[in-house]
Design goal:
Layout lengths: L4 E8 L7 H17 L4 E3 L17 H17 L6 E10 L2 E10 L2 E7 L24 E2 L7 E2 L2 E5 L6 E6 L1 H4 L4 H7 L4 E5 L8 H15 L3 E5 L17 E4 L2 E5 L6 E8 H10 L11 E5 L22 H25 L5 E4 L4 H17 L6 E5 L7 H13 L3 E4 L3 H11 L8 H22 L2 E4 L3 H6 L12 E2 L6 H14 L5 H12 L19 H5 L2 H13 L4 H11 L6 H17 L1 H4 L28 H8 L6
Parallel strand pairs: 1-2, 2-3, 5-7, 8-15, 9-10, 10-11, 16-17, 16-19, 17-18, 19-20
Antiparallel strand pairs: 1-14, 3-4, 4-5, 6-7, 8-9, 11-12, 12-13
């Protein structure tokens, strides 16, 4: 089970009601098919050995005995397969009939989990046949190995993260679902054997319920539904199977389409999420552990992995997120202005993406506060590397938003500074570059002092992760509105504003669109002979789409570089070769560690997403921490070895 990835499945075979022998054959074929596809855990529907719709036939000893025989037939026929699976079966114990999920692995019926909540309303009348399980301790039932019946969690001895528990249909819909306690007691996967009939609107509700239960329990949730073969005397079943992981649907069957769906779940990701949440600590241990010991295979991941984890792929969702983030940024700045009794702001405009977004946010914050846009001082500070394109866009922005525009050419000030410290103007080293950034910050701070205003910072999350900022230069401000927004999302936020104003202000829309199309650059080196940008950030530190991908998985889940490399190879297949991905991942790890000192003294700024680097909130790390362990891990997947 490399990197925590495990293939799981949900199977709905076509059955015959009350024909246990036929049904067991169908179940065995599904198990064999799943095992051949490297599936390690397969879940079948509720009472699939007999059929859910057997009605009063459940009161017949003949059917119950046939179900028991079929269950052990299934176990024996699959004893040579490295797969665990759960099937629905009726079980009589102490003169009570239980609706159970039977967990089987390598020929052994490991345990039986009865249904806790028995529905007896509307079309359901299960209390006519079954009793709810309300015992505290498991009981011993049939079988040579004295199979346990009760609340059970199954744990793989080889890979302990591979742990699962079972609940049945109504248990999910009840207010106190067993899965809640199973999750806090350590089950990473919840299997739900269901017989949920199909009526209009129910599929959508069911999907949302499974999705949210997986999020609430921070688990993998495998939901398997009855389908063709069940009686349609009064009900219709659609075989609606769903596999979710912590609030995200990974796989879903088409309605009325029997078969198996698979998903490659990430149990390391589940463990990482739970490790951050102290609410998953539990002192109660009502469930009994059962163990199984096959080694799950190292699968070739077939799971879809987005290249842009910070950016929604659906346009409607992306538009909604962009609008909300800009409002959150503006609300944060508005609150800061109000609490400090400040009615002026200063924004340094470069004509680039980050400063453009900062101005957009500032304008909206002033609108919230009922302050005139003229109270925003937009300052452009051309120097050695400024091009006509970025200069004109900066001027256009300042005018379009009706701000108080200032131009402060810092070239002579920087040259004077070079003379003061004895630095050659022809030496285009880091001093040459950073002197300009620090001069610009000084200008902004002093203007803010003149007018009693607040300097709005422009640096984004991606730059903070890489340390791509001049210490005590653009690294510093009085409130950093973009501090938790990654570069890949900044571009979309500016594009969103461009579309939003297209009808009302075509010229502003044009300027914004051109800014989006401009290469990312600090413009600290002289332009080329034809006047275009000579210093492109992504040529130096690497593509931001790669770095944002690395950042997301490094910060959000604490994944090792070797696993991030594996994921990136899948996500960016056809875009970057392995050597290129490895090169920039190595750069990311190195820079993330050695640039922490800049993040340790960041200005305040609003958190808008799940990944943030504020030293006061989400990320506390010593500035002198060593990256050796992470570099060593990355070396294990070096493609040039």
């Amino acid at each position: 089970m490399k990197d925590g990835f495990l293939r799981v499945g949900a199977a709905t075979p076509e059955i015959r009601v009350a024909d246990c022998d036929y049904n067991s054959d169908a179940i065995i074929e599904c198990v064999k098919e799943a095992a051949a596809n490297d599936c390690s855990l397969l879940v079948f529907p509720e009472l699939c050995v007999t059929g859910y719709t057997a009605g009063d036939l459940f009161l017949s000893d003949t059917l119950i005995r046939a179900a028991k025989t079929a269950l052990f037939k299934i176990a024996d026929a699959t004893k040579d397969l490295d797969i665990a699976f759960v099937v629905g079966v009726p079980v009589r114990q102490n003169n009570k009939l239980y609706n159970c999920g039977a967990a089987i692995c390598r020929g052994r019926v490991m345990g039986l989990t009865p249904k806790t909540f028995i529905p007896n309303y509307s079309e359901f009348y299960e209390l006519r046949h079954f009793v709810p399980f309300d015992e505290q301790y498991p009981d011993v039932v049939y079988g040579e190995d004295e199979t346990l019946l009760g609340r059970l969690i199954y744990e793989n001895m080889v890979c302990p993260r591979f742990s699962f528990a079972t609940e049945i249909c109504e248990d999910l819909w009840a207010t106190e679902s067993p899965s809640l306690s199973y999750a806090v007691e350590g089950a990473n996967i919840i299997c739900n054997l269901s017989a949920s009939d199909e009526i209009i609107g129910k599929a959508e509700f069911r999907r949302d319920l499974v999705k949210m239960q997986s999020a609430k329990c921070c688990c993998v949730y495998i939901y398997t539904d009855c389908g063709f073969g069940e009686s349609t005397q009064d009900l219709v079943f659609s075989g609606h199977n769903i596999i979710a992981e912590n609030g995200k649907i990974l796989a879903e069957s088409n309605l009325f389409d029997n078969g198996i769906i698979y998903a490659d779940v990430d149990l390391q990701r589940i463990a990482s999420e739970r490790g951050k949440m102290n609410t998953f600590k539990s002192e109660t241990r009502d469930s009994v552990r059962e163990v199984f010991d096959f080694t799950p295979p190292d699968i070739e991941i077939k799971r879809y992995i987005s290249k842009s984890p910070f950016v929604p792929e659906e346009k409607a969702e992306l538009d909604g997120r962009c609008a909300k983030i800009i409002k959150m940024q503006a609300a944060g700045l508005y609150t800061r202005l109000k609490s400090c009794h400040i009615d002026h702001a200063v924004v340094g405009l470069s004509g680039g993406l980050d400063s453009t977004l900062a101005l957009i946010v500032t304008a909206k914050a002033f609108e919230m506060a009922g302050l005139p846009s003229e109270n925003i001082v937009s300052v452009t500070m051309p120097c050695f590397g400024t091009t006509d394109r970025t200069y004109n866009n900066a001027v256009g922005l300042a005018k379009a938003y009706k701000t108080d525009f200032m131009e402060v050419n810092i070239k002579e000030s920087v040259i004077r500074h070079f003379k003061d410290i004895g630095h050659s103007e022809d030496d285009h080293d880091v001093t040459y570059e950073n002197s300009q950034a620090r001069e610009r910050t000084q200008v902004l701070m002093d203007i803010a002092n003149q007018i009693g205003g607040l300097v709005v910072g422009t640096g984004d999350l991606s730059e903070l992760a890489l340390g791509w900022a001049t210490y005590n230069g653009d690294h510093m401000s009085m409130y950093g509105v973009n501090g938790s927004v990654p570069k890949t999302l900044v571009r979309h936020l500016v594009s969103h504003e461009s579309y939003a104003v297209k009808e009302s202000d075509p010229e502003l829309s044009r300027v914004l669109a051109d800014i989006v199309a401009t290469p990312v650059s600090p413009e600290l080196l002289p332009p080329t002979e034809d006047g275009t940008i000579s210093q492109k950030t992504e040529d130096i530190v690497g593509p931001y789409e790669l770095h944002d991908f690395f950042l997301y998985y490094f910060m959000r889940f604490g994944f090792a570089p070797s696993k991030i490399f594996r994921l990136a190879k899948i996500a960016f297949a056809g875009d970057y070769d392995d050597v290129t991905i490895y090169k920039w991942l190595k750069t990311f790890v190195r820079r993330f560690f050695n640039q922490q000192f800049k993040r340790s003294c960041l200005p305040d700024g609003p958190k808008v997403g799940t990944v943030a680097l504020s030293p006061r909130g989400d990320w506390r790390m010593p500035s002198d921490a060593s990256s050796a362990v992470w570099m060593a891990d990355l070396e294990t997947v070096n493609p040039e070895k």
